[in-house]
Write a structure and sequence with these properties.
The complex is a heterodimer. Chain A is mainly α. Chain A has helices at 2-14, 16-39, 45-71, 84-91, 109-114, 116-142, 144-151, 155-191, 198-229, 232-252, 262-271, 294-298, 307-331, and strands at 273-277, 302-306. In chain B, the strands form 3 sheets. Chain B has a 6-stranded mixed beta sheet, with helices on both faces. Chain B has a 4-stranded antiparallel beta sheet with strand order 2-1-4-5. The chains are: A mainly alpha, B alpha/beta.
Chain lengths: 335, 312
């Protein structure tokens, strides 16, 4: 079987669409690195000069506003009759400072893990899903599946081999991309003298493993679904419709159904926990509900999904899909 | 009959759809002896490809038993598959891969050395074009590549479904010679083709089916000799008058450049009928039936039975 897996990996490697889809998340991760490195860059002399210029500009605006206020206090909502000058000075007491214009969030690996890390895994998962889809969809569209079965008629073995190839490819893609992404960010943090605790490093490894599992699952799901439908177009269209209308669908099923939304669960798998929002009674918005009362708990519009249950749910969906796909592949006539 | 390479009994394939059940293959019996080239003939939609697809495990039989090399299939198909090369319907390869890459993937899937790809490409005359993408190939080149793929296994049974489709006359002759050589070398070839002249030239035996039913099967010589009405080429001074006389006597004739083609099992009756009318024969030669006429007689008969609702 390992020989067949090697053949399928070669088939994957030779497919141009697969190569392009492989480059997509790598390019995305590289661009994200550049953007994040730039956005979190340390403040330099030019930044300070720019901040001083902006602070001075704001001071001038404030002085002009104060002068206008003293001339036309009613225009600024200052009631006439009193000490309008004092009231204007009180209104425009704000003194712009250079520090106000020097704010920039420094690089934080913890924050990056929660946000950009999730984004990279999400793009990896979409790319892997499309790789699984286009890879086997091509076999169906060209009819070459029947040719392959003339050489290896054990259909279960062929199904498993192709699934294994897609899974291995995705594991490699995800592992390499995430490893490179975090390696570059950690080097960047070190170069900026930002300390990274051991705990954060462990979190990164765990997120990488969970993310890779999710990416691999997405690839196998794409493969299994297309093997079931035998059409790349059908699968992609179904996924697009689900992507657009999926949230609405779960919303219509009721607030408790939002817990089953795949994107929320995928996010929980990657980050360890994810929040989703549920509708709350209207009374919550008018302050009629005393805090701490039973009804107050109903006013909490956030719920949590943790990684374990989320992985169990997504894993179950994948197992059912894979079983249906393999059974269909085994039984149905091949065109 | 010696050892059978292909054996099917009561083979049936039904397709269920919204409009009801359509039977593509009706309880077909098929026996292909080892060695030689066996023609598998039938009009379009007669169930040839469906039968081949069931034998090769691409389609599931609704009913019936099949054996290849004496082994029941599809249960033991993996056991015999390495001995079978097949082209089913049109060639099916990845269009963006080169011809060579397509063959390499198939070759490696059975653990064959890459050198076998070179040999197969050389056999079908594609050596110079193996680096081109499959989608740039002409139909004839695609057929050649498909035949090359069948040779990767060094097969003992070759199943070829319309292998000369799209080939030019020279290509057809080359493939015909390849098939003949393979048949003579001990490989059993099941050749499904519409080109009956081609089948008659290379086949040692044949099976004819119509509307999914077996119509005739056996050695080609036997098919040509047996069944149907014999015919004679008749040369007379006045063919038109002779045709009228024969028609009056209930004998069917058709004009030919040399005279008449008269359908009858009794040459004496032909000469007597014409002689009694004062028409003296200058020639009476038995016409040897060809596979095309046998095929047309059998398939026309089957079509008639179908139209009148008579079961075969």
């Amino acid at each position: 079987m390992s020989g067949l897996v090697r053949v399928e990996l070669t088939r994957l490697r030779w497919r141009r669409a697969v190569v392009l889809l492989t480059l997509l998340p790598i390019t995305f991760a590289a661009l994200l690195l550049v953007v994040r490195a730039y956005e979190t860059r340390p403040l330099g002399a030019s930044d300070i000069a720019e901040a001083e210029r902006m602070a001075e500009e704001q001071r001038q605006y404030a002085a002009e506003d104060l002068a206008r206020c003293k001339e036309q206090p009613d225009f600024y909502g200052i009631p006439e009759g009193g000490d309008t000058d004092a009231l204007c000075e009180e209104s425009f007491s704000y003194e712009p400072r250079v520090e106000d214009f020097l704010f920039r969030t420094p690089l934080s690996i913890t924050e990056e893990r929660r946000e950009t890390g999730l984004a990279v895994v999400a793009v990896l998962a979409v790319a892997a899903l499309l790789i699984g889809t286009t890879y086997v969809g091509h076999d169906w569209n060209t009819g070459s599946m029947s040719n392959q079965l003339l050489f290896e008629p054990r259909r279960s073995r062929v199904w498993a081999t192709k699934a294994a190839a897609v899974a291995l490819w995705s594991v490699a893609l995800s592992a390499v991309t995430l490893l490179a992404f975090w390696a570059v960010l950690l080097v960047l943090a070190r170069s900026r003298d930002i300390a990274v605790s051991d705990g954060v490093a462990v979190d990164l490894v765990q997120q990488g493993l969970r993310g890779t599992a999710l990416v691999t699952g997405a690839a196998v799901a794409g493969y299994a679904l297309t093997t079931l439908t035998r059409s790349t177009v059908f699968t992609v269209a179904a996924l697009a419709v689900f992507g657009v209308a999926g949230g609405l669908f779960f919303g219509l099923l009721g607030s408790s159904a939002l817990r089953w939304e795949p994107a929320t669960n995928a996010s929980a798998v990657v980050n360890g926990v994810a929040e989703y929002y549920v509708p709350v009674p209207e009374s919550c918005f008018f302050g009629t509900t005393p805090p701490g009362s039973g009804e107050g708990e109903q006013c909490d519009d956030t719920r949590e999904v943790r990684a374990g249950p989320a992985a169990g749910y997504l894993g179950s969906v994948l197992v059912v899909l894979a079983a249906a796909s393999a059974a269909s592949y085994r039984r149905r006539d091949v065109p | 009959m010696g050892e059978l390479v292909i054996e099917a009994t009561g083979l049936r394939k039904e397709y269920r759809g919204r409009r009801g059940t359509r039977v593509a293959v009706h309880d077909l019996d098929l026996a292909v002896p080892a060695g030689g080239v066996h023609g598998f003939l039938g009009p379009n939609g007669s169930g040839k490809t469906t039968t081949i697809r069931m034998l090769l495990g691409l389609a599931r039989a609704t009913r019936g038993e099949m054996r290849l090399f004496g082994r029941p299939v599809p249960q033991l198909l993996p056991e015999v598959a390495p001995r079978i090369g097949a082209v089913v319907e049109s060639p099916k390869f990845s269009p963006t891969f080169t011809g060579r890459r397509n063959l390499l993937l198939l070759s490696r899937s059975i653990g064959a050395p890459d050198s076998r790809v070179d040999a197969a490409l050389a056999t079908v005359g594609l050596t110079g074009r193996d680096g081109d993408r499959y989608k740039s190939y002409s139909l004839g080149m695609k057929q050649r590549l498909a035949i090359a793929a069948t040779l990767l296994k060094d097969p003992q049974l070759l199943v070829l479904d319309e292998p000369t489709n799209g080939l030019d006359p020279a290509g057809i002759r080359e493939i015909r010679e390849t098939i003949r050589t393979l048949g003579e070398s001990g490989v059993t070839v099941l050749l499904s083709s519409h080109i009956l002249g081609e089948v008659q030239q290379v086949c040692t035996s044949a099976t004819i089916i119509g509307r999914g039913r077996l119509l005739a099967s056996g050695p080609v010589e036997q098919l040509l000799d047996g069944g149907g009405t014999a015919a004679y080429a008749v040369t007379v001074p006045d063919p038109a008058h002779a045709a009228e006389v024969l028609a009056t006597a209930g004998l069917r004739s058709t004009p030919t450049p040399e005279g008449l083609r008269v359908e009858s099992d009794d040459p004496g009756r032909v000469s007597r009928t014409l002689g009694e009318a004062g028409i003296w024969l200058t020639g009476l030669v038995p016409l040897r039936r060809d596979l095309e006429s046998v095929f047309l007689e059998l398939t026309a008969g089957e079509a008639l039975r179908h139209e009148t609702g008579e079961e075969a």
